[in-house]
Amino acid sequence: MKKLLVIVPFLLNGGGLKSLLNHAQEANLVQAKEIQIEAKQHELKSVSSEKMPTIEVGAFLSDSHPRSFMQPGTIYGTSVKLKYAIYDGGLKQAKVAQKRFELASAKFNKSFFSKSLYLQIVQDYYNIKSLDALISALKLKQQTLVEQLKKTKVLVESGFATVDNLYSLKAALALVKDNIHSLQFQRKSLVNIMSLKANYRIKSLGNSHFIKKKVSFRANDLIRALKLKQKAILSGSKMAKSATNVHINLDASYNIYGYGRSDRAHPKGLGHQAKIDLSAGIRLYDGGASKEKAQAIKLQAISLGLEIKQKLQEQKMQYRLSKQKLAVAREHIGALKAQYTAQQKLFATVKKQYESGLSDYVSYLNALSEMVTAKANLAKARYELEIAYALYYYNAGYDIRSFVR
User: Fold this and answer.
1) Where on the phi/psi map is residue 215: left (φ > 0), alpha (ψ -120 to 50), or beta?
2) pLDDT for residue 345
3) How many domains, the chain?
């Protein structure tokens, strides 16, 4: 059996998304899938070995007191027995085929699970990035309010502004601080969740993006796993049918024996005996049990086939929606760019008017809030585009790691 690794979480210091995804292969749940594959490998070796003959070695000793009439008092010996199924109706061959399909299915199951885990981590990664952008925007707003608060204090002390303006700025500043603390807690929670998924303690995220390219559709690994599972089930049907086929068996044995405290009918000393039995048989009638069992297994395979068809249709639908989402996300970024540019210009104008006394603090705070919100929304939209590309590649049936830069 392979040695199990003890996974020790460590820091990701700006290694980027691809480094995080690569190390996610060592996550506990991924390793659990790997152990399941190893178990299937042992099952395959086990059924493959059933094709070989079995050899048994034994010994015996019987001692009777008092000795019965015409029976030796002591009987002893040893034996070697060989059993071999020359033909078992195709049972062993069907078993091996079934285990091979199950092993291949387990490998695709692990691959699909890993790819799904990578997608979750990508979504967490860019959601954290979005929170960072919003926190950064709020901190800019906080800095601007602090600077404006200092100027307003001077104006109030000089009699050029009312104390109401000062209180309004303080209230706005307190609200911004509270929002920042709330978002920082959300970020910490999301980082912990992502770290748990990857079994990786994260210190900083680095910067990463997806290659923007078109890819063709292909069935994902879950569908491949289910198709192999279907073949494994059909192998079970062959196993059921094998019960009604011809069976040919070979049994051979060689015995060495001896007697003690015996009589003339059982002279002392060693004797030996070799024996070979060759038998053949066929089940002519079993009430239809084998036929019904094979039919039940076939129906299970048909049922799974319908499930495969449904999942393939779902994947194709998600692939089409992913392509549409890319177009929508790109258009959304264009609109938000224009909005952010306009809000920057508007804030610059309102700020000059407020500092000149031509605008009130309400207009100033509204303009600042709109600009900060526009900046955060633009950053969030860019990260959502990255998630959209991850979904596009994932729904197309690819490993998203190969598209990360």
Assistant:
1) beta
2) 95
3) 1
